[in-house]
Amino acid sequence: MRYVTESANHSMQRDHNMFSKKNIILLLASATLLSTQAHAAKVYQVATDAAYAPFESVNEKKEIVGFDMDVIKAVASKAGIEVKLHNTPWEGIFATLSSGDRDLVASAVTITPERKQSMDFSDPYFEAKQLIAVSKKSSITNFTALKDKKVGVQTGTTGDEIVQKLLGKTNPNIKRFESTPLAIKELQNGGVDAVVADNGVVINFIANNKSSSLKIIDDATFAKEYYGFAVKKGNKELIEKLNKGIAAIKADGTYDKIHKKYFGN
């Protein structure tokens, strides 16, 4: 009887040890999986209207490139986060924040009191202002001279907003386009008398289209504007990360290098 009992005990002990080892292996595997998931970097989805060179556009390789893209990538690197870019039409771009489809908008977005009511902004990363593009033969010399003219703007931009204030919100002389380059092409074709848009875009277009026969009017009444990255209202965590990154690239010279690449100074 003693032999049988010892054998049974030995078998039970062996099974217990195997069970314990299996449990330990499973627990370690689970812990590793949870740890990997916990440390996996969140990829922030970025909306940008890639029809606004030099800030954002699509190159021949179908890549989204531009000043804003270089800046947001550098900011993300300094902040320790990952970003993925999505080409998104300007109309409806901010709705992607409230719906949760996108985490932030990096698309030459001017920080305005109106926009602050429905979204939050990072610290400014670019100083801009509006410019007027007209034909070299035009007699227009300032903003107020546009009162009885046909003016092209990109829908929903700052240019659209200030032209509305001058001409009236429902004035049929305001011609709206999906992008500033389309508005400028309409100016070249004689469909509008002038285009009001952000300085960087207007300067870039004319610089790259030497035969455009256009000139720029810099009206002193145009106020300085500042671009920021827009996020869903209340997303303080992401704002803090973006601001950390913006401060870092400005401090170590990265921002200056990017600015010089696109604007020469």
From TrEMBL:
Q: Which residues form the Ionotropic glutamate receptor C-terminal domain?
A: 43-265
Q: Could you name the Gene Ontology cellular component terms for this entry?
A: cell envelope; membrane
For this UniProt entry, the molecular function terms from Gene Ontology, in alphabetical order, are: ligand-gated monoatomic ion channel activity
Q: Where is the signal peptide?
A: 1-40
Where in or outside the cell? Cell envelope
Q: SUPFAM superfamilies, alphabetically?
A: Periplasmic binding protein-like II
PANTHER family in the cross-refs: ARGININE-BINDING EXTRACELLULAR PROTEIN ARTP, MEMBRANE-BOUND LYTIC MUREIN TRANSGLYCOSYLASE F
The record ties this protein, via InterPro entries, to:
Iontro_rcpt_C (IPR001320), SBP_3_CS (IPR018313), Solute-binding_3/MltF_N (IPR001638)
| Protein name (database record) | Basic amino acid ABC transporter substrate-binding protein
Q: Which SMART domains match?
A: PBPb, PBPe
Q: Which UniProt keywords apply?
A: Signal
Family from the record: Belongs to the bacterial solute-binding protein 3 family.
The opening ranks of the lineage are: Bacteria, Pseudomonadati, Pseudomonadota, Betaproteobacteria, Neisseriales
What are the transmembrane regions?
Answer: none
Note one Pfam family from the annotation: SBP_bac_3
